[in-house]
Amino acid sequence: MRSSILTKYADAGPPWYTIYPAAPQFSTTVDAEACREWLTCLPAEEPISLYVHIPFCRSLCWYCGFPTGATRRDAPILDYLAVLRDEIRLVAEQAPKPLPVSDVHFGGGTPTLIGPAELLALMKLLRHRFAFRKTATIAVEIDPRTFTTEMAEALGAAGVTRASLGIQSFDPVVQKAINRVQSEAETSAATETLRHNGVSRVNFDLVYGLPNQTVQSCVQTAAAAVAMHPDRLAVFGYAHVPTSRKNQRLIDEAALPDITARAEQAEAVAETLIAAGYRQIGLDHFALPHDELALAHKAGRLRRNSLGYSADTCKTVIGCGASAIGRLGDGYVQNEVAISSYSRHIRAGRLATSKGYHLTGEDRLRSAIIERLMCDLEADVPAICAAHGFDSNPLLESAKSLAMLADDGIVDIENGCIRVRHKHRFVVRAVAAVFDAYANRSSC
After folding, report:
1. Nearest Cα to Cα of residue 154 among 206, 203, 193
2. 403, exposed or middle or buried, with CB in 10 Å at 0-12, 13-18, 19+?
3. How far is the C-alpha of 166 from the C-alpha of 186, rounded, in Å?
């Protein structure tokens, strides 16, 4: 039964639903002028989140699906930072007064490649241009292989409160197959250095479904990670899309585990982490009971955004940097992906928005249902429809595949409330796709 469910649903390839509608639905009809108008209309007292994208790494991991590039030199990074600072000023100037900030996330790439002095200068600029709340959460993604004590000291001085460390796998065979050789000692040292410098909340990223990966190696990696006591872990399934990610063409497809093996790896990691005291959250996150993600999940206020699961309740996300996605009042905006195009717009004094999406009332409704399914594994469709001013009957009647999901024992439906059975949480995306008006056209 499990194998048939996996074959029928898990390999269907729906979006990850970090945002809805997914990025393939973005259009060039939402341009820099639309972004400017949306920025000027943001409520002056409502807190926002900032996302700052640093698209550089020292070497490119073959599994990576993010828009980033490898450079051994600092010059391209410094040139990019100069443009990024100009964008921050340009974006901030659209609001009549500094917008209040409650969350900041530096993503990449490897944000900590920018150097300690540059990081401190960037944080100083952000604090000058925006009104940071005293309780603001500041998070940064880190590659332990290039992390230094000097950068840890700078992170502490900059007020960074959370760090996310990429691990993927500690199996040397797997590491070689994905071009990311990283020892447990490097990871442990980075973790301890962060904590010593006041960055007390630490996340780890693990990946299953990688070439040459086995259930045993996944469990060993999870156990080694647990020994370092991270506050939370994200356990992602590797998505092999070599047609759109050239670096993934270097991976030996014959060494990739099949869909059943992937599910066994995910389940084994989950069992290891739960046994160690972590709470399973949504599709692929695990957190200690004291972590704000676990607390948000318990309180029913867990969110799903472009970074995955989050306790951040801000309605607005301003994205800065090449390819960065923002969520403003009326929809989504995305900057130019290519650094050259992004830089050209900013240097000309223009916002770098290349495309976006204007949300309709129905989009917001479907997004709310999908978010609750992804976060809580259940959604009270009539209640959500009522909150958005819609009648639930037409929506439920048009969701033809709900009956099939119920017949297959994946969901229980009672008075319009849909609950995903815990043992089938690994196909929750297929349940969410029932309410995706673009499901047959979205791909990420």
Report:
1. 193
2. exposed
3. 11
Closest CA to 48 of 84, 94, 85, 80: 94
The string over 153-185, giving b where at least 16 C-beta atoms fall within 10 Å of a residue's C-beta and e elsewhere, is bbbbebbbbbbbbbbbbbbeebbebbebebeee
Per-residue confidence band for 3, with pLDDT thresholds at 50, 70 and 90: low
| DSSP 8-state class, residue 433 | G
Task: Say which amino acid occupies 377.
Answer: L
* SS3 category, 10: helix
Question: What gap in Å lies between CA 272 and CA 163, rounded to an integer?
Answer: 22
Tokens representing 99 are 């917008």
Spell out the residues 6+ positions from residue 70 whose beta carbon is closer than 8 angstroms to its own. Answer: 56, 57, 58, 59, 60
191-215 per-position pLDDT tens digit: 999 999 999 999 999 999 999 999 9
Q: Give the span between the Cα atoms of 341 and 352, in whole angstroms.
A: 8
Cβ atoms of 263 and 426 within 8 Å: the answer is yes
Per-residue pLDDT, averaged over 260-277, amounts to: 95
Helix boundaries (H) for 197-258: 215-226
Q: What angle do CA 331, 52, 65 make, to 5 degrees?
A: 85
User: Among 438, 314, 422, which Cα is nearest to 378's?
Assistant: 422
